[in-house]
């Protein structure tokens, strides 16, 4: 169990735990150097983390002439967290250990047009079955994270979405907490994917980066100082509504020429439907319910070198690269991760287009480069990130963002 501690020491303790997480293995002396705390303070904090089972000693470092330093690392078996990715076509569940490694995964039917209450009832049943299959004791589950576009983020904030419908203001957290008896936290899929990269990739809190997430649309998760950036209404990262062409097609958000209207899967499929031969060859239906299947067929064809499909995806990639270039210039980024199901097959095409444009035109290109990394395409990225969100809220409270409602353990 996680030790209850007073507010004066909570942030210090959690910051040290986060340093252990990001370091992989680290000595007490190195923790003192990184944190600026005294050796005595580090010894006391590490002792409490070891007593709670969160940190373990894993051996000794190389000798430097004196006593060999004992090495510390996060204890991955000290507990588990659940991540759930909500999507129209599928629900993805993952159970991870404290290190973020997936120990179990299941995919079931998506939310479709079902009501939120019906979907949440099914989620409870499917989670119970997953716990039984993995033989994970409920007492060792620290929390549940939920990722999805348009979810209510708490504190009166909303993330607007054309596909969210009833989910925008539905009390996902409260209902799941009451039904599961576990703490629950939720966020949008792009933010979760970014946080998952931070936790699983052992990225230190001193390194800022972005994750571009593509599903039916685009989202951008920005991690700065170990926290996901929020903004005034928790809507940071709406890169899909960066205007690429002021005279472009009208967008549902009220603007014109948004990235989503020019480069998202729906836009690519729409252009492909204008080619009767390609439509027939790839068996594109053009129906809303088949959007993901149509796009995946085009992406696979583009990845295999089919010229017409490749031209369509490259056009989309050029628009995306332009939006990313502006983001890189505004935020002075040196690292960008590409994640989400939209990059499953065509990810390398997008990564190349972004890298080429940014390397040529980024404002700070003479000072530093920008690494564009195709990290974890697919739905697992958001689900693992949702689990990481739960871990962060429990284990490293210093990194919590005050705009997200805190997790509450149900009675």
Automatic annotation (TrEMBL):
Q: One GO MF term, please?
A: DNA-binding transcription factor activity
Alphabetical list of InterPro entries matching this protein: ATPase_NBD, ROK, ROK_cs, Tscrpt_reg_HTH_Crp-type_CS, WH-like_DNA-bd_sf, WH_DNA-bd_sf
Top-rank taxon, per record:
Bacteria
Which PANTHER family does this chain map to? GLUCOKINASE, ROK (REPRESSOR, ORF, KINASE) FAMILY
Indicate the family of this protein: Belongs to the ROK (NagC/XylR) family.
Q: What is this protein called?
A: ROK family transcriptional regulator
Name the species this protein comes from: Microbacterium paludicola
